[in-house]
Amino acid sequence: MSATPVNRTPRGRTPYRGATSGSGARRAVRTAAAVLVLAVLLFPLYWMIDIALQPGTGLAATDWFPVHADWGNFRRVLDSQGSSLLTSLLVALGAVAVCLALAAPAAYGLARFRLPGTRTIVFGTLITQMVPGMVIANAVYSSYVDLHLVNTYLGLILADASLGLPFSVVLLRSFMAALPHEVIEAAWVDGANRFTAFLRIVLPMSRNALITCGLFTFLFAWSDFLFALTLNTTDDVKPITLSMYEYMGAHVDDWGAVMATAVLAAVPAAVLLVVAQKYVAAGVSGGALK
């Protein structure tokens, strides 16, 4: 005689067959809410592209969908604003290079060396981000006149690099302070000096934080308008932000061309954000662990 297994429900619990369907319904509601929020956030971008693809129409008369899309606005904008896009790209990349070249060793020194006044230096670095940009621009302009840096690429690169420098120093310091010191000591034992260990050990391990700082510095420099307006008195160095400002004043009735300019100006930043998204998340979370 064999015993028949009996399925018993644990005491205090009752079987609930609708749990799976209930969780699925909640998941569907959350997904729908997320899609709705995303649609609201992305609608200005879609409307901008929609107007750019429909030349000769006003804001109120624009169709919801560009059924008969025309790329004429983009061709005209590239002909007139292409040089400004290249200028902004060159200035932003130069600002990233200068910012990382200064922020990385400064952050490593603040994180690894027991220097007097380290907390004061970090606090002062954060305070610099609270100073109004107009005050800095006016103060920098008088110095630039004496140094002959007005209307030059180098002057604008140095000014834009200062926008991301405080943020980069603070983030890199937090990230480098969390690195295992045993790895650096092992490099010293193998014969590497401090500078070699910094280049071959610390910088590769800080890749995510460096990419994060570089991305934010690029965005700061790409979207800068105040330094571009203050430190340039001619058309020799004209970033896309300043060029868009002047272009809108001259084409205030041609919204298709204005929106095409805005779309082209947003493409590099959007591409970088998508490509570097995982590195940014890792870099910010890694810097927050300390």
UniProtKB/TrEMBL annotation:
Span of the signal peptide: none
Annotated segments matching region Disordered: 1-22
Domain ABC transmembrane type-1 intervals: 85-276
Subcellular location: Cell membrane
Pfam families linked: BPD_transp_1
Keywords from the UniProt entry: Cell membrane, Membrane, Transmembrane, Transmembrane helix, Transport
Name of this protein: Carbohydrate ABC transporter permease
Organism: Actinacidiphila acididurans
Phylogenetic placement of the source organism: Bacteria, Bacillati, Actinomycetota, Actinomycetes, Kitasatosporales
